[in-house]
């Protein structure tokens, strides 16, 4: 009935899994590939942040509130 746990518990377990992957990761054999992956991650996450900020500003404007009050 609750495949991912109750409420926000699923986020806690996913965080534990991420930490386990990080702790068990092997050192990179080619630093250029590792740098490329990290750089790509920053670009993708930055794009996601821009979209999120735009959505929050749009939502705040629709409610007639400041961004701070809306958040």
Automatic annotation (TrEMBL):
List the InterPro entries.
Answer: SLC30A9 (IPR040177)
- Kindly list the residue ranges recorded as spanning the membrane: 33-56
> GO MF annotations for this entry?
monoatomic cation transmembrane transporter activity
Q: Which GO terms describe its biological process?
A: intracellular zinc ion homeostasis; zinc ion transport
Q: Which UniProt keywords apply?
A: Membrane, Transmembrane, Transmembrane helix, Transport
| GO CC terms in record | endoplasmic reticulum
Report the protein name in the record. Answer: Uncharacterized protein
Q: Which organism is it from?
A: Stephania japonica
